[in-house]
Amino acid sequence: MNAKRAFVLLIGNKERGEINHFQLLQEETAQTEGRRLGIDVEVAFAPGFDQLRVMKRRLVDAAAPPLDAVVTEPASTSTMDLMLRELKGKTGLVILSAWGPSIEENAASWGAGLPLGNVSTDHTAVGEIQGSQVRALLPEGGRLLCIAGPARASAAQQRLEGLKSRMTDQVELQEIAAGAWTESDGIVAFNDWYRVAKARDPIVQVVAGGNDELALGARRACEALADSGHRDALLGAKFLGVDGCPTFGQKLVEDGTLAASVVTPANTGLALEQLSRFWKQGTPMPLRSYTKATPLPAGSTSG
Fold first, then answer.
1. Sorting pLDDT into bands at 50, 70 and 90, what band is 109?
2. Is 7 strand, coil or helix?
3. Domain coordinates of the chain in residue numbers?
4. Which CATH class is domain 5-121+265-291?
């Protein structure tokens, strides 16, 4: 039997360096698992606004081998809905790190012999872990700034909801959403918040980023503040992230740049493994599957 072919479409612009480390981990895992499973894997990156065009271009490329499945992390739920509409009845699809009712609505009529599923980290659980880390750092309460991911991303909203569910009345939470998931977006988001907050009292004890890049961006923005009093006080805060990629977030925790993170494994590996079982053994593709997030350091959720 000829090897099956999967097109893995991730978020970012690799050539311009506009990509976060989790997406790079997704790419590396897809390539490694593809080789292990005997699946031909193509990986492409596109900014959120361009994902649909890049996917369509690959689908109609007559010079390229036909695809058996698309594995993609849509930048927004609206992009996800457009992808479902475009691919229905044409090829398999695994949605990564995003969820919406349209997945369930399309499942029954997706197409005979075509897999459809969703593989994600439980982002609400991620937020709950980060919220527990905040509570461990602020046992008697305090002030928290949350630099959330993009408002259009279901992952960002679920992480924020999970974090809030762990807060007590003694924690004063301020929040702002970043435009995307990169360090530069974290810098911009922090500066937008500080521009308003500096006229009042901008000092917080914890800064929680929706991912490690956003947390690092917030820290870099603090380091660049002109007001030395604000700068020194804010750099005394604990910075928390999410993803804990081995080559990035874990190193930031090890060297003390971040106080803690939440490790979220790449989900491209599980997606390809489930596709392999579907193709080779006829095992039905689960409509929804989760990878497991864990706190970093292990004891960071307890005071």
1. very high
2. strand
3. 5-121+265-291, 123-263
4. alpha beta
